[in-house]
Design a protein that fits this description.
By secondary structure, the chain is mainly alpha-helical. It has helices at about 10-20, 25-50, 55-60, 65-85, 95-105, 110-120, 125-155, 160-180, 185-195, 195-220, 220-225, 230-255, 260-270, 275-285, 290-330.
Length: about 325
């Protein structure tokens, strides 16, 4: 039962949502938190750029087909599944939840958990670092474009959404990311030495965005629109999405003849969605009152992917250990 217990950050996220539901920021406080949220998003992506080493991007290009397969899972397979969700009847899935599920499907992969699960599974960690890093860099460009095309066309978002999305992403995410990466020669050492502190800063920024977003959503009547049935639908759709992607990436890796080590990269990097990138991206792309509902599926999916992938990583680790044991007699002879 231990693996089904939510991780500590998820518990803090739930507490933040509860606080926003009971004590949402209003008036001048909401204006202050809005500015603070923008500053937190800019700082978050500046630090992401500063943490990303060029070696991490260039080091795994020897297996470019693996990275292409991972990116295809993240930005082709997932969006197609999101379109399938958008076609479900409104009587079953609320249109706002559809928008949140579509946004979930166009996000980049995680970095830390993808690498951690690949390492736990005894997979190709350098390739996982490369795939996850490429996914996050590509997401800065592809997520707003996919949001403009798919969410605009499927959810009837107001005209001009794509242009506003690109402008917002360029100012709040892309520019800080590029500046941070260009400054890495000067601040990279500091960033590498203080990764634990900066990781906490990342999480603090996410919590600030979540509190501000849910405050605006609660004031706009979020919990009058979202029922227990809606939460069950979000959980069911999240489980179905993850299961489909895991099956397709696993079978695709085996059909392509990938080694077990490379298979774990495709499975873990290709099935994850980044909460760390998704929350600030939602804050940059959508109106404050919309953000709370839009990131709700992402928060549910985040916990489900951690639980499921932890179990899968342990399975892969046992499988690799068995292969090693099977090879030992022949090696000795």
């Amino acid at each position: 039962m231990f693996r089904f217990r939510p991780d500590s950050f998820t518990l803090i996220l739930i507490a933040t949502v509860a606080m926003a539901s009971l004590l949402p920021c209003r008036g001048q406080a909401a204006i202050f938190f809005g500015w603070a949220t923008t500053a937190a998003i800019v700082l978050l992506f500046f630090m992401h750029g500063a943490k990303l080493s060029r070696q991490a991007i260039l080091g795994g290009f020897a297996v470019w087909r693996l990275h292409l397969a991972t990116l295809s899972s993240t930005f082709v397979l997932f969006p197609l599944l999101g379109l399938a969700v958008a076609m479900l009847p409104d009587s079953l899935v609320d249109p706002g939840i559809k928008m949140g599920m579509m946004f979930l499907c166009i996000l980049p992969s995680t970095v830390q958990s993808s690498i951690a699960f690949t390492a736990m599974a005894r997979g190709n960690v350098p390739a996982a670092v490369c795939s996850a890093s490429l996914s996050n860099v590509a997401g800065i460009f592809l997520t707003p474009l996919l949001a403009g095309v798919l969410i605009h066309s499927q959810m009837n978002v107001a005209d001009g959404f794509l242009l506003k999305a690109i402008q917002s992403i360029a100012m709040k995410l892309l520019a800080p990311f590029i500046i941070g990466h260009l400054m890495r020669p000067w601040i990279g050492g500091f960033v590498d030495r203080h990764r634990i502190f900066l990781g906490r800063l990342d999480r603090g920024s996410i919590l600030l965005v979540v509190y501000t977003a849910f405050s605006a959503a609660v004031i706009d009547g979020l919990w009058h629109r979202v029922s227990g049935f809606d939460l069950a639908v979000i959980a069911g759709l999240s489980i179905a999405l993850l299961a489909i992607v895991l099956v397709i990436t696993t079978m695709g890796a085996r059909i392509a003849g990938l080694s077990i080590e490379d298979e774990t990269v495709l499975v873990f990097c290709g099935s994850k969605k980044s909460l760390a990138s998704g929350v600030p991206m939602a804050g940059a792309l959508f109106a404050p009152a919309q953000v709370g509902l839009i990131i709700l599926p992402l928060m549910v999916f985040h916990q489900i992917q951690l639980i499921v992938c932890a179990a899968i990583a342990q399975h892969y680790a046992r499988r690799v250990e068995q292969v090693i044991r099977d090879l030992e007699p022949s090696t000795l002879s």
